[in-house]
Write a structure and sequence with these properties.
The chain has 167 residues and is of the alpha/beta class. The protein folds into 2 domains: 86 residues, TIM Barrel, CATH 3.20.20.10; 64 residues, no CATH class. It contains 6 helices and 5 strands. The strands form 2 sheets. It has a 3-stranded parallel β-sheet, covered by helices on one side. The chain is elongated and about 65 Å long. Keywords: Acyltransferase, Transferase.
Length: 167
Amino acid sequence: MVEGTSFTGEGTSIELDLNVLIAKNLGIPTIIVGSGVGKTLEELLDSLYLVYDSFKIKEVEVLSVFANKVQPENIELVTSSLQKSLPSNVLINTIPIISSLNNPTMQEIVNELNAKVLFGENYLNNEIGHYSVGAMQLHNYLVHLHDNALVITPGDRSDYFGSFTGK
């Protein structure tokens, strides 16, 4: 398996040409993966068609086309558009954007801060979906608390520590 470049930033046409030439010279089939992040549906589809055509012009076999990080409500539309426009022997895959994959775990926060874990070692693999600063009185703060939240609080707020740890 050979991983090509990612086509981000300037010079993407040069990167695409380079990837096509590498696949052609090595005689390897290709799987195309395109990201829907920051693109309209039309831009995503057009970019996938352009990349597909670039490989086919150079007679490089394309096994599959992945539309990655697509808004869930657009999955069916993207899939059907690709199926209509590409040959039936090309596998079409559309993957929804899953925002939680961007969430760090408590272990990653601990590592990044070089922190010492005082309690809760069993929860270090929990994902952090939200964060907030808890400095107001606890009963006022609780209405602002979310699931999977990292609460940043001053060290002298022992009421917070006991409330969130069950101790």
